[in-house]
UniProtKB/TrEMBL annotation:
Coiled coil: none annotated. The keyword Hydrolase applies. The keyword Hydrolase applies. This is Tol-pal system-associated acyl-CoA thioesterase. Keywords: Hydrolase. Belongs to the 4-hydroxybenzoyl-CoA thioesterase family. Pfam families: 4HBT_2 (PF13279).
């Protein structure tokens, strides 16, 4: 018999924003109990992967079919306040730009109303041999649908 506690946590969309919550564990921190800087990238990666799942982008299916896969082509991170052991964080992701072969995502690492870090990540869609290629049209359409929710709220 399974229980809801046996299911992994899933984030989701609130309008155009994808929200992914997590808690800072001991393994995420340095000896002072502060989140090690590279772990913010891991938190953002987890949130982006969950955002793609929530947008019904089947990365695993595309990989297995030999269609292609996303790879981070560029990452810019700005650290503003340290997150600490035991903090509950929310990674808020929004789609900044959708191009033929890439997507740029803005991500904020929030502790309540406090901004701890933010990043802009460009993920390129690559063929199995590593060359940029067009994303599946249905994925681009989903991304544009999500982005249109930003314009509706403005």
């Amino acid at each position: 018999m399974t229980s809801p506690l046996d299911q992994p946590y899933r984030g989701g969309f609130v309008g155009p924003e994808h929200r992914f919550a997590l808690t800072v564990y001991f393994e995420d921190t340095d000896t002072a109990g502060i989140v090690y800087y590279a772990n913010y990238l891991k938190f953002m990666e987890r949130a982006r992967s969950d955002m793609l799942r929530a947008a019904e982008v089947d990365q695993r299916g595309a990989l297995e079919a030999g269609t292609g896969v996303y790879a981070v082509a560029e990452a810019h991170v700005r650290y503003l306040r340290p997150a600490k052991l035991g903090d509950d964080l929310v990674i808020v992701s929004t789609l900044d730009e959708v191009r033929a072969a890439s997507v740029r995502i803005h991500q904020r690492v929030m502790r309540g109303d406090e901004l701890c870090a933010q990043g802009r990540i460009t993920a390129a869609f690559l063929t199995p041999d590593g060359r940029p290629t067009r994303q599946p049209r249905e994925w681009v359409a989903r991304f544009e649908d999500i982005r249109s929710k930003t314009k509706e709220q403005a």
